[in-house]
Specification:
single chain; 264 residues; alpha+beta; Fumarylacetoacetate hydrolase, domain 2; seven-stranded mixed β-sheet; five-stranded mixed β-sheet; 12 strands
């Protein structure tokens, strides 16, 4: 797919986001059918959003880090997209219920890097990426999609749509998390004070550090790298569907704190 068609697809996604409309699918002549085209559209979609909203890329998110979800979408690995400053918030956050369609809440573990992770010639692993992570925290991704039915849109179209990003908020950062078993860390998610779901960090490739390593390697494969100061988030430990106007959703990560969002 040439750049003209990628730009056209990105413009359609931006228009759908701006005008609060949903697409059945991207048109055939600019619909990606592979990951290379999908990430090319994503690059242009993100650039167009930044040009319209201002701000900058402050980090990256990994999605589809659960093997079952990958199988449902026909993937053999996660996918990723930038975190843009205009949809990143700190907890507690307030979001308009009119700002998206889905409002699916995903409880996630995130990190802030305190050093770059450049191409060294060898793939990163959980062990080699860990020293670069300066802090850890709980987070909630508010998932949204520009497609009427994201479950049938297919992975390339979801990647193009910046992997279904609505909003993302994160809690207080902990620089001392060496005592936390990241391969087996629980989260409890509450809706209006009532526990709705519980999950575990093992749901994301067995350990969020595995996701951090995957994300570092993914960016290198695309000619970039994770950089000091950037935020990363590692995919859903558990999801709560369909928050509504007036709802309070809180994710309690225990030693990693509490993250909270109110919909008005």
């Amino acid at each position: 797919m040439d750049r003209t068609h990628q730009d056209a697809a990105a413009a359609l996604l931006l228009g759908a986001r701006r005008d609060f409309q949903r697409l059945t699918a991207l048109p055939d002549d600019c619909q990606p059918d592979n990951e290379a085209d999908a990430y090319g559209i994503q690059d242009r979609f993100v650039a167009q959003m930044l040009a319209e909203h201002g701000g900058e890329i402050v980090g990256y998110k990994a999605g589809c880090t659960n093997v079952t979800a990958q199988q449902q979408l026909g993937l053999s690995s996660p996918f990723a997209g930038p975190l843009c400053s205009f949809f990143v918030m700190t907890s507690p956050a307030v979001i308009s219920s009119d700002a998206g369609f889905m409002r699916m809440m995903e409880a996630e573990i995130g990190f802030r890097l305190d050093r770059d992770l450049p191409d060294t010639g060898s793939p990163y692993t959980a062990q080699t990426v860990r020293p670069a992570l300066g802090s850890a925290f709980g987070a909630i991704e508010v998932v949204d999609s520009r497609y009427r039915d994201w479950t049938t849109a297919g992975a390339p179209q979801l990647i193009a749509d910046n992997v279904c990003t609505g909003f993302w908020l994160y809690g207080e950062e902990s620089t001392d998390f060496s005592h936390i078993d990241l391969a087996n860390h629980p989260v409890q998610v509450y809706r209006n004070g009532v526990r709705a779901e519980q999950g575990n960090s093992a749901n994301v490739l067995g350990n969020p550090l595995n996701v951090a390593a995957w994300l570092a390697n993914h960016l290198i494969s695309r000619g970039s790298c994770l950089e000091s100061g950037q935020l990363i988030t590692t995919g859903t430990m558990i999801a709560v569907n369909g928050a509504e106007k007036g709802d309070n959703v809180a994710a309690d990560f225990g030693a990693l704190g509490r993250v909270e969002v109110n919909f008005i």
